[in-house]
Structures are given as C-alpha cells and as structure tokens.
Amino acid sequence: MKQLHLGNTTVDKVVEIDNFWVDPTWLYPNIEPSAVLKHQEALGPTLIHPETKKLNLSFHSYLVRTGTANILVDTCNGNHKDRPRAKWQHMFKSQEYLRNLARLGLGPEDIDMVLCTHLHTDHVGWNTVLSDGRWMPTFPRAKYIFAREEFEHFLRQHQSGPEFPVGQGSFLDSVLPVVEAGQALLVDSNHRVDGDLAKGVWLEDAKGHTPGHVTVHVKDNGQHGVMTGDIFHHPIIFLEPGLINTGDWNPTQARETRQRLCERFADTSSVLLTMHFPAPTAGRIHSCSHGFKFKYLS
C-alpha cells in the first residue's frame, strides 16, 4: 500500500505476512465452491488463486502519524506465541514486522499508542515480546487502548477457567501482561483518542465479530479513513454478503455492522482500510446493482 495522506496525517501499512492463502471454507464455512468460481474473474489472481481457488489474506498493522502521536492499529500474530490449535501461527518466528516498522523510520520506543480493534489472537500478537522468559510490552512508552466491553468479555472467559486458553492463549500472553505493566487504558467503544472534531483519531462501536469490536477513524483536513478490523476479511464479502466468518461471535450482528458501514461510506471519499486485504489494500466502497462493491485505490 502506498502511504496514504489524510490532510497532514499519514497512514502506512506495517506488514507481518504479505500473502496467506487459505481454503475458502476455512474463512467462510458457509461458502459454496460455485461462489468462488463465479467471482474468480472479477476478483483476479491476487485474491483468488487461479489453480487452487484459495483466497488470499494479509496480516498487517497501520501506522498513523498525526504530528502529535505515532499510533499503531492492531499488532498481527507476534513471535514465539504458543498456538497449538492454530498451526499456521504456532511458535511463529519472523523479524519482518519490526523490520518493516524500522523501514518507516520508527522503532518500538517511538510508538505512543497501540489501538486494538478487537482482542483476537491475530490482532494482539505483537503487543508483547518474550524477554528472559517473560512476556513484556513490545512498545515500552505506548499506551495500549482496549475497548472496555471487549476486555471485560474476554476477562470473564479467562476467569471462568475454560478448558482451552482464551484466544488460544493470546489473552494470557498478549493482553494481560500489558495490563500488569500499567500500560493498558480501557475506554468506551466510542472514544476520542487524539485531536478534536476537525482533526483526530477516534473509535466507534462496531460489535458483531466480537462483543466489543471497534473501528478506528482518522480525519484531517476533511479527509477520512476508517480501519475496519475484522468487519471485512476478503473482498468476496461484498459480492456474497451472506457469508459468515469462522470467528464471528454474533453472525447476525456482524452482518448488520457490515451493512451499516457499506451504507454509510458508499460513494463517499472515505477510504476503507481493512486488516486482511492484500496489497494494494486501501480502497473505497461503491454502490452497484447487487448492493456494494470494493474498489482499490490506484
């Protein structure tokens, strides 16, 4: 993704995994093979593999530089995390994420805030790093901002003593250590993070995928971008709006949230920034005969 300029605020993508090909039913259990074939030509080979018919995903964060703060939105999978029920990220080891942050001129100590759209394992992984056998916040100066409703939901699950660790272990190794270090800030789902009404960063309630899921909005000089977390996983969702994602906590509410965002931002200048669309990633929503379509920025 090219650097996005929203007024004087910039947004860059910080990539952990560029291309991750998955079976369509892994992502959307109710998808029909005919749907993949039907949309293969429209979506193209970078989104649907021409031979395997797999769907392509990306794992990345967004770095927002407002002039007053360096803000990281979501933190992907992370290194050395014990995920035996998620083999593709189990004990993942790669320095690409921090290298890509460094290529943008910043190190972990330069991040002022970390915003998590929700607390699933692939959105909190780089919240912490393993240091001398302990999980420590990766970004030593940052305030980590979690929606209170989201955090409390997963905390109740954790305290109930479940058979399997909450979030495949991510709550224990990537969220609670941040709280214990005194770097977490629990906020309402509609919370202004930085700036004011004319220029700033704020959260908005967007539950459905999880109980406290939020979107992150950036506005400067009349230009607006919205980071949608896991409301949209792959562009095929615009062509097949009835698809249900594997991780949806409340599929009906998740679909209603997607519909509401499409109606709100279709045919506007607002830029959609999802957490899993591969390059070129950023784009806009447009109305069409079947409802809505997504078009990448050129």
Report what the structure shows.
This protein has 298 residues and is α/β, with parallel strands linked by helices. The chain has one domain: 4-Layer Sandwich (Metallo-beta-lactamase, Chain A). Helices cover 22% and strands 30% of the residues. The strands form four sheets. It has a seven-stranded mixed β-sheet with strand order 1-2-3-4-5-8-9. The mean pLDDT is 97.
Keywords, please?
alpha/beta, 298 residues, five-stranded mixed beta sheet, single chain, seven-stranded mixed beta sheet, 16 strands, Metallo-beta-lactamase, Chain A
What is the compact description of this entry?
The chain is α/β, with parallel strands linked by helices and 298 residues long.
Q: What level of helicity do the residues show?
A: 10-25%
CATH fourth-tier homologous superfamily: Ribonuclease Z/Hydroxyacylglutathione hydrolase-like
The major beta sheet can be summarized as:
7 strands, mixed
Radius of gyration, CA atoms, in whole angstroms: 18 Å
The strand count comes to 16
Q: What is the CATH domain class?
A: Alpha Beta
Please report the distance between the alpha carbons of the first and last residues.
10 Å
Number of helices: 7
